[in-house]
Amino acid sequence: MKLKYIFVLLTSALFMGCNLEELPEATTSKGPIFGSESGLVLYTNSFYTMFNGKNLHRADAMSDYLARRDSPPFITEGNFSAQISSGWTWNDLRNINYFIQNCNDPRVPATVRNNYLGIAKFFRAWFYFDKVKRFGDVPWIGKPLDVTDTELLFKGRDPRTMVMDSVLADLDFACQNIITGSEPSRSLVTKYVAYAFKARVALHEGTFRKYHTNLGLQATASGLLNQAVVAAKKVMDESGYKLYDGAGIDKSYRQVFINGAPIATEVMLSAVCDLALNNLNDANWYWTSGTYGDKASFIRSFINTYLNIDGTPFTNNPAYKTMLFKDEVKGRDKRLAQTIRAGDYKRVNAGVLVPSPPLFSYTFTGYMPIKWALDDMYYDTRDLNINSVSIFRYAEVLLAYAEAKAELGTLTDADWALTIGALRKRAGITGGLTTKPTVVDKYLQTTYFPAITDPVLLEVRRERGIELCLEGFRFDDIVRWKRGELMQMEWNGMYVPELNKPMDLNEDGILDVAFYKTLPTKVPGVTYVEVSPSIGGKPNSQLISGDTSGELTWLNNIPRKWAERNYYYPIPTGDLITNPKLTQNPGW
């Protein structure tokens, strides 16, 4: 890892000193890099900054299942436009294309060159996949541009089909030519990471074309879904990865996200933190602060989708709507208590374990995430976290395989046991692990996917939401499934049975929180949260759904609105002025 960071620093210094975009074409200027494997390593390591891996723990900040301190501008009417849009940047592509064009020095064996070309094409696919998800049609540029390339510099956008065919071609090359199948640090792209990425891309594009019928590309969806199946199965059959279960059902899932070193059995690629190099992340600061970050909290509608430990839907119990927090977190999928503060969750304060129920100075709904946050309060201020952040892990591959086969209608009981069943088994669930479901969960269908009648596909989507929550997939999933309306869901929270009465959220005998409209006599140690309709003449964003009892609600006085145009971001106005041939996305 230290060697990798030294390479990156050296590469940055070299590029700043030489101005890569204006290197002369003379062989002597390229030789130090392209004439040796060490030079190719140094160059390709410069691509890894594209992952922005240390921030992935907060990549779901705009999603349907998180309430936060403010409504995201993108889905708040009148708060987003082409004037403030971003993301239309191309510097990384120029760097990648320059490498691809010049990685041809015969002094380096062809298999070695092709290995690093495969890595470069992996990153070009990464670059373009991100652009297509954000903007739809984009210009495909397959060479490093010069100031004289005016035709390419000012070309219009290429069709989505052409760009995604090129992305998949790049990934095919990467899969076939990257030599390394595994490496111990889990910080470098390998052959099986490339296959996992191909499964991710093909699944996304296949389902996007299936559900976005306005594109007229439904006929091409099954071919892409089949590619996702083949790529995922390659990883499943050959890579040697498996789900980590070394800490037992109460800890294994979360351990993947709080471990310092990547858990190599399951994590395929990670942003590795290193205290000695001061390469750290801010997960605790983001997730355990009342002032920093988004103060993001899960909504109750999503928490309701966690199954009972026997594999039955929690919402089959008619009393679920008025169940107290201390009761609703019992007897559930073990991932629930490894994702939010619940039950006997404790933290370390100056070396002492202390009970740590949901803290209402840090949460709006009561469902306070712990998936990425370390238990020691030492890490709660500034960017001090030493836990690695996974970019690819084996669980996603299993879900891609299951979803693609479910969409194709070819998922068998054996496939189910190998994928969804295996994930649920690690989570302690005891029922429904070996055979596909045959009954639709009405709550899941009505609340999330009313157009889906296949119980298998519904359960695969449930599993994806739970297993991959807070890992940066949710917004993209909503977009590809064409379920943008979910972004308008009410931000609801735990059930409050009555006002003014302090509640013990974790049954440790200590009263934690009370909700009031008229401030009662305070009980020492209790957090009091006002749910009056207005405070100081202004509407209060923290309310309850009924007059004297009901679910907590947060910020529903500011409507979130999803329109057809929100399936793409607008191209920034400045870029349209520079190149009018790009044309703006519809509705913007």
Automatic annotation (TrEMBL):
Residues 1-20 form the signal peptide. Keywords: Cell outer membrane, Membrane, Signal. It is found in: Cell outer membrane. Residues 295-588 form the RagB/SusD domain. PROSITE patterns: PROKAR_LIPOPROTEIN (PS51257). InterPro entries: SusD_RagB_dom, TPR-like_helical_dom_sf. This is RagB/SusD family nutrient uptake outer membrane protein. It comes from Runella salmonicolor.
